Amino acid sequence: MHNEKGLTLVEVIAAIILLSIILISIFSFLLNSTRLNNMNDESIQAMNIARSTSVEVRESSCKVVKANTSLNGEYYTKEFLSGNSEYTIKLSLNKNPESGNLQPELHLVHIQVMKEGAEVSDTYTYCKGELENN
């Protein structure tokens, strides 16, 4: 009998192939988790911008929305860059209070946060105040 103290070429190739399959699976998982993490970061950032804009709208008695707006049908609309400048914020305020509303001076404001023309986040809030005609 021969004294076999090593690996044959077939065994080495099989080990390399098996190791390659395992490493490709791990790298694929890491790549996908990094991509999802970046998407979640973007979404959270957009939600925080929408929330801070919502607070600003409520505290300003509709003045933030009314300043430099255009009247588009029943809505005042306004678009501006956020402080981050990656995101565009679009505010839409119904010029007529909602019918059946117990407090007629409340106006529904739709806040949309967009990046590269696509909506990333949106929220609604109310602002209280009289609207003058622009």
From TrEMBL:
<feature type="transmembrane region" description="Helical">
    <location>
        <begin position="12"/>
        <end position="31"/>
    </location>
</feature>
<dbReference type="InterPro" id="IPR012902">
    <property type="entry name" value="N_methyl_site"/>
</dbReference>
<dbReference type="GO" id="GO:0009986">
    <property type="term" value="C:cell surface"/>
</dbReference>
<keyword id="KW-1133">Transmembrane helix</keyword>
<dbReference type="GO" id="GO:0030420">
    <property type="term" value="P:establishment of competence for transformation"/>
</dbReference>
<keyword id="KW-0812">Transmembrane</keyword>
<dbReference type="Pfam" id="PF07963">
    <property type="entry name" value="N_methyl"/>
</dbReference>
<protein>
    <recommendedName>
        <fullName>Prepilin-type N-terminal cleavage/methylation domain-containing protein</fullName>
    </recommendedName>
</protein>
<keyword id="KW-0472">Membrane</keyword>
<keyword id="KW-0178">Competence</keyword>
